[in-house]
Structure formats: structure tokens, C-alpha cells
């Protein structure tokens, strides 16, 4: 439950930071500093993707919490029950790619799940050997430079939202 609360609180914090950053980008566009705005938008895009990851992790933590009894069903199980497997795999895989200082409880949950199902299972999940981690989680932790068209779309939306005249490319 603490993981769920921490994830939600972090989402709110990141959303507030993103809003402030968008305001700053609108100001940059207004001043004709499009290249600086472009660089900052890349950061916002990556933060938006991270926010989506946090939302998914919150859902998976809720799933594991609601179906907690299935985790304890079999004492020495080497794999989780299929009803919680996606959540367990997602938490183990994605938590390793988040900041411990921001999501301490999530990392503790990850450690507990890894201990519960053993080293071999944990390594297989971390490498996504059996494809048990959903693609949407894998894509969100794989940080890439955003496509120029996506950057332009973000800039256009920010300019529009803040009533800034900006000739989109």
C-alpha cells in the first residue's frame, strides 16, 4: 500500500514540475528561443513517458495488493500465480529502472518479490527472457531521443495552450 501511495504522490509532483516546465517553454517560444525550447521539450517528453510508467506501476501494485492471497498460496513457488504474474514481472523489471530515492517502497516490494520467487526467476524477469514483461512497460523504460515530429507536436501544443504565436515547422 505504501508503494501505491508513494507512486501517486510522485506522479502529482512530476505533473506539477511538467506544468512549470511547459510554462517555461512557452516563455522561450515567445522570446524566439526555439532551439532551447526544443531541448527542454525532449526532457518533458521523457518525463511524460516516465509518468505513464508510474501510472502503470501503481496499477500493478494495486493488482498485487488486491490479489495478495495468490502470492502466498504456494509456499515455495518458483513462479507467481498467472493472475498476478504480469504485475509481479512488471514490478521486478521496471522498479530496477527507477530511482531508489524516489520510490523506496517500490524497491522494497521488488526485493520481497525477488526473494519470494528466487534468483533464477528474478534474473529471467530482469532479462525478460520469457517475455513476461508487457511491451508497454519495456517501451517506457527504454529511453530514447524523441522523434523530431513528436518534439514539434509538443511545441505546437504548448504554444497553443499558452497562446503563443509560434510558426510550427
UniProtKB/TrEMBL annotation:
Single Gene Ontology BP annotation: protein transport
Domain of life of the native organism: Eukaryota
The record, for Pfam families, names: Ist1
Which InterPro entries would you find in this protein's record?
Ist1, IST1-like
Provide the family line. Belongs to the IST1 family.
Q: What is this protein called?
A: DUF292-domain-containing protein
Species for this entry = Fistulina hepatica ATCC 64428
Amino acid at each position: 500500500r505504501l508503494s501505491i501511495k508513494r507512486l501517486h504522490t510522485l506522479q502529482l509532483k512530476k505533473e506539477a514540475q511538467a506544468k512549470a516546465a511547459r510554462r517555461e517553454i512557452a516563455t522561450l517560444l515567445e522570446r524566439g528561443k526555439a532551439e532551447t525550447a526544443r531541448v527542454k521539450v525532449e526532457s518533458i517528453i521523457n518525463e511524460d513517458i516516465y509518468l505513464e510508467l508510474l501510472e502503470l506501476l501503481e496499477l500493478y501494485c494495486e493488482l498485487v495488493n488486491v490479489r495478495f492471497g495468490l502470492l502466498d498460496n504456494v509456499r515455495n513457488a518458483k513462479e507467481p500465480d498467472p493472475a498476478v504474474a504480469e504485475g509481479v514481472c512488471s514490478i521486478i523489471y521496471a522498479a530496477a529502472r527507477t530511482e531508489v530515492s524516489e520510490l523506496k517502497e517500490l524497491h522494497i516490494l521488488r526485493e520481497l518479490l525477488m526473494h519470494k520467487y528466487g534468483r533464477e526467476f528474478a534474473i529471467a524477469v530482469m532479462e525478460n527472457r520469457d517475455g513476461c514483461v508487457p511491451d508497454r512497460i519495456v517501451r517506457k523504460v527504454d529511453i530514447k531521443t524523441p522523434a523530431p515530429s513528436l518534439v514539434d507536436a509538443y511545441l505546437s501544443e504548448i504554444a497553443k495552450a499558452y497562446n503563443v504565436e509560434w510558426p510550427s515547422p
